[in-house]
Structures are given as C-alpha cells and as structure tokens.
Design goal:
Helices cover about 45% and strands about 20% of the residues. With about 375 residues, the protein is of the alpha+beta class.
Length: about 375
C-alpha cells in the first residue's frame, strides 16, 4: 500500500484516491542473495536500530493517504422518506384547512346576505353591519359604520324595550327584546334583537353584538288584532291582557300599585239618534284625542266597548288618578265638538288592593262609574 500510495503521489498528482482496503496485510521487507550473509546481517542490524517513531516519520514522508467515507445513501433515503411524509401530512392539513376556510367564507357570505346583525364598540358605535340589515334599513354599509346605533332606533324607543333585557346587558350578560327602528326613508320596522357583550382576551367588555329577526309583519298583525278600528287605540282584547300583566307585576313587586279609570260618554245614544253615526264616530275620535293628550306615555288607554273607555295607570295612587279623571272630564266638558253639541263623560276610579284579581278590581270601578252616572253624570266617583 505504501508503494502504491507513493506512485500515485508522484505520477498522478493526487487525482486518484484509495476508495477502500482489503483485509490482507502486506509487510515491506528486504531480500538479499544467499551468498551475501554479511549484507543480510548489516541490514537487519540497521532495521533493528530504527525505532517505531522513526519508522512512522519515514512512512509519512513518502506516503500521504487520505481516507474518505463514502456517501451513506441509506441515511439519505431515510431522510427523504421522513420529509416526504411530513410534506404529505402538511399538504393534507393545508388542503383540509383550505377547504374549511372556503366553507367558512361561503357561510359568512350567506350570513352577511341573509342574517340581520351589527357589532358595536362599548360606546355603541357601529363597527360592522350585515348587508341584510343594510337592505332592511335602506342604508349602505359606509353610511352606518362609524355611526351610533341610535341612528337606527326610533325616537320613542330606548336601547332595549325590555327593562329586563337592558338590566342584563348592563350586567355584561346577554339580553333580548323587541326594538322599534326607523329606516333611512323614515318608515318604521320592528326587530327582535338578541344582544350580547363581546369581551377582550383579558375579559373586559369591548362592545356588543346584536343578532336580529325582522318581526315587522308580526307586529302589524298584533297591532291590527289589539287596535280598535275606528279610534285606533287599544281594543278590549289588549286591555284585558294589559290588566293581567299589570296585576302580575304588582304581585311580583310588592311595593308597586296601579289604578284604573272606566269612563262612559253621557247620553251618547241620543247623539247618534239625533245627528247620525257619522257625527257620533267623529265625537269618539275627538274624545280619544283629548284623552291621549292628557295621559302619560306609560298609561294604557283603550276602548272598552261602545262609548266606554278604560285607562290603566301604573304606579298611580287613587288620589292622583282622581285628579287625572277630573282633568279629562273638564277638558271634554269645555271642548267644542261642533254643531252646538255638548258632550260630557262620567268616570269611575278604583285602586288595586292586595286581594284583587281581574274581576274584583273591574267590579269596583264599574260600580264607581254606575254611581257617577246615577248621581247626575258628568262627574268622577271612586270605590
């Protein structure tokens, strides 16, 4: 090997490399003629005087052998397989995520097109709104984003019609309620809104989300079903339901109370017989307008039947209710109905008692009205 390495070094200028070794071992030696025994002794003595370090120095001087390990293809293919599997895995995951993202995008487009929703910051400034809500309200997105959500709210509506809903929202809980809104062209519409707070990563409220359902047609049907066709005030069906609700409220909240007023037009049959039903209908409308101008927004006013009307007055004492009835009586007495017609009304007043139900409280107010009519009419009586 030494000889081969030397020749390669001198003749091939190191362009050849030894790629491996064979298991046999070859020792370099001297040979002399058998008739030169003296020479043999001299050479052996000379070799014996060369120590191991000297031998290695001589070898290194003449031979420069560089061993290189060959390329390990087995490790290479293992690495390729591992990376190939990883590529396939991440490729599959990307495909799945991409497919889900496309589906989510499609769903969001559907939601934007068909679902009524808006998002506001903590101060009620709109930061996002669906195309569906824009179409319903008549606004474009850029006309709503950055504006207060109050621009959609009708003037006679608070943030949430339901007090319970508003209470939950102020406590950072989800709430729901019916909202009366106004369109860009001034028309009104109703929505049923589910409102919930949105939170930051540290749990602070940063805004509100409202998902809504258009209930305009439902409210119109309700309005028709509980509105008196002639006078456009509540009918008896609605008054019955309101009275039950008020009774339920005062029973739940022990410190609450209410009073009711039952009123009847004096000698209304004579007016119809003398002037006709058209004039009688006009008088009914005038009386309704006079009453509505003198009651509170919280009072429930409706036509009980014929020429009788009922007013439910929440959180009103009997004394205050008597004053209200007297005020309305005086307004009607002084009003000029035309055709030199004088029209008056009799009033009965009753306050809720803890033992009352719908029948008992109405029985008392009806008796109070009977007393007023039988003691001269055009007066207010109470029980």
């Amino acid at each position: 090997m030494i000889t081969i390495g030397y020749v390669i070094q001198k003749e091939y200028l190191n362009v050849l490399k030894i790629g491996g070794k064979i298991p046999q071992s070859f020792e370099l030696g001297f040979a002399v003629r058998n008739d030169e025994p003296v020479l043999l002794g001299i050479l052996e003595k000379a070799l014996e005087n060369i120590d191991e370090n000297k031998r290695q120095a001589i070898t290194n001087k003449w031979v420069n052998i560089k061993y290189e390990n060959g390329f390990d293809y087995s490790l290479f293919w293992k690495i390729v397989i591992v990376f190939g599997l990883l590529f396939l895995f991440f490729g599959y995951r990307y495909s799945v995520v991409h497919r889900y993202n496309l589906q989510i995008k499609k769903n969001l487009e559907v939601i934007d097109k068909y679902v009524l929703f808006l998002h506001t910051d903590k101060k009620g400034i709109i930061i996002d709104v669906s195309e569906a809500l824009c179409e319903l309200s008549g606004y474009k997105k850029h006309e709503l984003i950055g504006k207060s959500e109050k621009m959609l709210r009708h003037s006679d509506m608070s943030f949430c019609q339901s007090k319970e809903c508003l209470s939950k929202i102020t406590k950072n809980q989800a709430g729901e309620g019916e909202l009366k809104n106004i369109k860009k062209d001034g028309a009104t519409y109703w929505v049923y809104a589910q409102i919930s707070p949105t939170f930051s990563q540290n749990g602070e409220v940063i805004g509100y989300s409202s998902f809504q359902t258009d209930i305009t047609d439902k409210k119109r049907i309700e309005e028709i079903s509980h509105t008196d066709q002639l006078t456009q005030i509540f009918n008896r069906l609605y008054l019955d339901r309101s009275l039950k609700i008020e009774l339920s409220r005062v029973r739940r909240y022990k410190d609450n109370f209410f009073s009711i007023i039952l009123m009847d037009i004096d000698f209304f049959k004579d007016i119809n017989d003398s002037y006709g039903h058209t004039v009688g209908d006009s008088i009914l409308k005038d009386i309704v307008r006079l009453v509505k101008d003198n009651i509170r927004e919280s009072d429930v006013f409706g036509r009980w039947g014929g020429e009788e009307f009922l007013i439910i007055c929440p959180n009103t004492t009997k004394e205050d209710t008597l004053l209200l009835a007297e005020k309305i009586r005086q307004k009607i007495q002084d009003y000029k109905f035309g055709l030199d017609i004088t029209c008056t009304m009799s009033f009965g007043v009753a306050k809720y008692e803890t033992s009352d139900d719908e029948d008992s409280i109405f029985l008392r107010v009806d008796k109070a009205l009977y007393i007023a009519k039988n003691t001269g009419r055009n007066r207010v009586s109470s029980l």
